[in-house]
Amino acid sequence: MRTQKRYIPTMLGLWLGLALPVAAQLPTPSSTLDGLGQKGPVISPLTQPTLSPGVIQLMELEGRFAQAVAEGGGKAFAQWFADDAVVLNNGQPATAGRAAIAAQAQWDPKVYQLTWVAQGGQMGPSNDMGFTWGHYEGRSKDKKGQPVVISGRYMTVWKKMPNGSWKVAMDASANEPPASGECCALPKP
What we know:
Helix content is 23%, strand content 33%. The protein is an alpha+beta fold. It has a single domain (7-175), classed as Roll (Nuclear Transport Factor 2, Chain: A), CATH 3.10.450.50. A six-stranded mixed β-sheet has the order 4-3-8-7-6-5. A two-stranded antiparallel sheet has the order 1-2. It is globular and about 60 Å long. The protein starts with 6 loop residues before the first strand and ends in a 14-residue tail after the last strand. The model is unreliable at 3-41 (pLDDT under 50).
């Protein structure tokens, strides 16, 4: 599971009639993302003028999803899922169905803060399914009151429902990759 995104209005966002996620507004691909300390390519209508309306729509959905979770915690998280959705968390069995997802998503946003920043997305050719991806961060405290921070990558698969609304079909997360140069290093004696 992951965390919230922040949205702020921009001239482009106002022109398009929406507030774009902070990550979508960063001017350069090497910018630090929303305080998470992650660097990498960021989708931006300013640096990528070919950004499709479908991707902008998916980014806006992610932003509303993140904002709802920031305010409502696990209960809000579960409400964004389709009845037949699947959650794939790193190192854990799949959770299938909104009811099972809701049973696991019981956190209070005052105790656990889940935030995320989308870095990219793609809309399918029929404009009824697409995905977004990026970095997430979860913050809580251990039994001694010490801060605990987890972070990683996520992917959200979105699908358009028969009534025209959009729901999460799949949410997947994984731990952060090893730091540069550590992937293939031999253990030190």
